[in-house]
Amino acid sequence: MRPLRALLMSVALLVVPAWVAGGAVPALAQNVGVVQSDILVVDPERLFEDTRMGQAITSRLQQEREDLIALNRKLESELEAEERALTEQRDTTSPENFRALADAFDEKVQQIRADSQRRVRQHERNRERAPLDFMRQVEPVLVELMREAGASVVMDRRTVLLQDDVVDITSAAVQRIDATLGDGAGNEGEPSQAGSEDDAAGDGTEDATDN
Predict the structure, then answer these.
(1) pTM (2 decimals)?
(2) Cα within 13 Å of Cα(100), Cβ side
(3) Which of 75, 78, 94, 184 could form a disulfide with 53 if both were Cys (CB 3.0 to 4.6 A apart)?
């Protein structure tokens, strides 16, 4: 049974029966430096921001965004040059031929715009999905900490109205995730990279810049 099926979709992040968690009796739990408690809390935002893996994902998303912006500017410059060259042909080209050239240019611009919008949407999906993908990857580490603490539930700290700080395992989880998974290189669920020429981005510069 996988204890995390709806990460960040409900109050409890981790829920398993007591027999899976190794029992909820502190006297029977191993003393491994994790506070013994039936209920633990963790801050998912801190996990993402403070772990090497979360920071690596953030860096990749930032690089993806910068690649989009750079490609947008490159294509914009090329289109402006092509438009100027086309304008210069107006006086030396028949109206029919010029119209054909202008229509072809307009079609090219529309295609680049469509590619741009698609790439920006993909970047947005990557950015929005990153925290959930991250939590799925660190799930085994949180399960391990939960079992070591003899707990049966790990809850999102942000949803708890009153709590005792001694049951917050965020710092311990950050250390364990770093030691176990490092920067997450080679793990599944990471955002895709951007900047390939065949996925050109054009008029989406402002959208990418705002993200």
Answers:
(1) 0.68
(2) 4
(3) 184
